[in-house]
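Lab notebook: predicted structure, single chain.

Context: the supervisor wants predicted structures on file for every construct in the current expression panel, including those that have not yet been purified. This is the next one on the list. No modifications to the sequence; it matches the entry in the shared construct table.
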Amino acid sequence: MTALLTRPAVGVPTIERLGVDAGRDRRVRVATGVALWLSLLLVTYWWITDGGGTDLTTGWETGLTSVGRLSGLWSADLLLVQVIMMSRLPPLENAFGRDELTRSHRVIGFLSFDLMLLHVITILAGYAGARWSLVPSTTWDLITTGGGILLSVAGMVCLIMVATTSIKKARGRLRYESWHLIHLYAYLGVGLALPHQLWTGQQLLSSPGRTAFWWTLWGCAAGAIVIWRLVLPLTRSLRHGLRVTSVHREASDVVSVYLTGRRLDRLPVRAGQFLTVRFLDGAGWSRANPFSLSAAPDGRSLRITAKALGAGSARLAHLRPGTRVLFEGPYGRLSDRVRTRPKVLLAGAGVGITPLRALAEGLAYAPGDAVLLDRFTAEPLFVPELQALTTERGLRVIGLPGPRRRPDSVLGPMAGDDELATLRHWIPDLAEHDVYLCGPTAWTAGFARLAVAAGVPPTHIHTESFGW
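Prediction complete. Output recorded below exactly as produced.
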């Protein structure tokens, strides 16, 4: 096992310095929300100036067509917005974090999909003169004669497949790797819609302003994907040349993989973040999986730790030293970026302790100002390392062993029936802490509610869950 890489204790930054990144991220969040709503208002304004509002009152045929035009404009705008959201654009990743971007992406994705279906239904009905019996023949005529319509149908099929597999029950039946592969078809679906918009949606290009708006939005979406999902990961992988140096079993179903490479001191990674990794060791190399760093980066090596939950994480135990690695990232806001207070509480469940272990090493804090709650059922992880951090950095560790006695239990059997009173007893000044949470989605949500009840403002609770 590679020795623990401990950092010397450092002074606690001032509150003003701690909040610099958080303030910048707040401004990005506000600007992003304003830009989204302005884009929707702009395309609505253009629809109105084209007579869209008037057409609603002149008959079923024109009314349905007008609704179809507006829903199509909204759908196209939101489809491109969600592509940009998931492009790994650094300002958005830093300001929102992967969990929040994923939740917003899901909401906007289903909304844009519903608007797309509304667009198709109302346009077909309008073109058929509001006579439903003519819809099949009208559909066929549009597919065979309309410019780009056939491509848009193929794109819609891709988006239907993505939306269907994004439903919670369907998602639960798929492996992460399979779901991720299917989800990539969303890019194909969005791309296939472009010719249809250019050839048949002339309202999109009927003025220089509209042309500039739509081409800029398309260009930003395509450019963000190419740069941040393809070019940058490939460039970083080649520049740093990550390779596996050793594999260490932390528990019966948990392993750590140690990586080294070139000029890692220039990789902008922080304790608490994660990498999306592909191990070039044969079958399965093309499937990428996210793995949290379990040790603070020191500029010489990296360590990721994972539990054998799926095919991607299970194969970590069989990696050989020297295996080459392609990676994307680093990603995630569960780092010092969101911190605004000198005191911190790090709470993890199971293998969720992984990024918190890195934070316990990498964050700056005075002795006694950092508390780590380790919730586990079978065996704790990183015991010698946490003991070393307790001795060298003044970290306070509270182990929470044992199975849950009831479904809503957060702290486990040690806490008794009144978990809120127990948490306040353990950490009387909890309301003065930044709270970092990592674990299963239901557990992090339950702990967040407990922390709020204990007086912690929601803006000082930072979570990362294992859901996808």
